[in-house]
Amino acid sequence: MYTLHMTRADFACWRNHARRLLAARVPPGDVLWQSEDSAGDLFASGDTDLPPPAETPLALKLSRQDLRRLECASRYWPTHHQECRWALLYRVVWRLAQGKGEALLAGDTDGAVIEQRVKAVNHEVHHIHAFLRFHPQSTSAGEQHAPEFIAWFEPRHDVLEGAARHFIDRMGQHRWLIMTPEGAIVCDGRQWHIERPDAGPFTVQDYQSLSAMEDDAEDLWLAYYASTFNPARLNEKTMVRSMPSRFWRHMPERVLITGLISHARHGARRLGQDSRLANRPGHAIKLPK
After folding, report:
1. Who wins on pLDDT, 252 or 157?
2. How far is CA 205 from CA 7, 210, 212, 254, in A?
3. What is the torsional sign of CA 277, 278, 279, 282?
4. Dihedral through CA 134, CA 135, CA 141, CA 142, nearest 10?
5. Name one Pfam family in it (predicted).
């Protein structure tokens, strides 16, 4: 059994290990991956020296599309009862190197897991695009490099790389910071990078220590959110499925959501707009039957 420690839990580190394993023709069942998402072996103390490259080492060339899929799947954080992501990826590339191209097909056992993990990561990228809320920061002349906007988000998977481009395009030349427990995206308006915590994950308290300023635009946002809420079209199951409640606590509109739902339950569904608009002078427009 060969033990390999992922000194960095990223795709590049795994890829270097995978190349060496394939060159030595080490089958997946002979590799124990040690990382933050695998229980590992209690008796494994360090990396095991790999055998030298075989006389006919396995080589694998992947298309850019397949490489992107594997990298995306590597950003999936498995739960305790799910297989270590690095072990799964190595078994897939081992099979591909053996000529078993079906290993990446959705109809294959491993391919189906890869497909499910890719979809989960992409879905979480959509979540951060939709539900992340920036808060403006006051910066003085001596803080020219401090972020102008900061945000906190708690994803289920590693979405920082996948989400960065969206916010770079959205924020223009503003300086901003997005913090998550496992890392942060830092952008100075021109260049960006990802910072990983040195000792333990970032916490919401770390974020709150930076976000002491009140958001003057929050009241305007809440007024807009309430005014566009349509109680006649409320479907609670669809809403929770589209906007999971785990995101609510870090969204300013959380103070309104429960009340708006309750109001709709108690008769407001007959209206096509929020009561604060419906009660203004004017003509009522009946909803079509």
Report:
1. 157
2. 27, 9, 11, 19
3. positive
4. -80
5. DUF4130
Q: Domain spans of the chain?
A: 2-126, 132-210, 218-278
Rounded CA-CA distance 202/106 in Å is 36
Q: What is the CA radius of gyration of the chain?
A: 24
Q: Tokens in use for 117?
A: 């993990």
Buried b (16+ CB within 10 A) or exposed e, 99-110: eeeebbeeebeb
Within 132-175, residue ranges assigned H as helices are 160-171
Residue 153: name the closest of 120, 174, 124 by CA.
Answer: 124
- Give me the sheet containing 192-195, strands edge to edge: 135-136, 149-152, 176-180, 183-187, 192-195
Q: Which helix (H) or strand (E) holds 97?
A: helix 85-97
Angle at which helix 11-23 crosses helix 85-97, to 10 degrees, equals: 40
Percent of the chain beyond pLDDT 90? 49
End-to-end CA distance of the chain: 69
Encoded tokens for 154? 């708690």
CA angle 69, 70, 72 (to 5 degrees): 65
The Cα 216–Cα 68 span in angstroms is 41
Provide the angle, in degrees to the nearest 10, between the axes of the packed helices 85-97 and 109-131: 130
Q: What is the pLDDT of residues 181-237, one digit of tens each?
A: 999 999 999 999 999 988 789 998 888 888 766 677 888 888 888 888 888 788 888
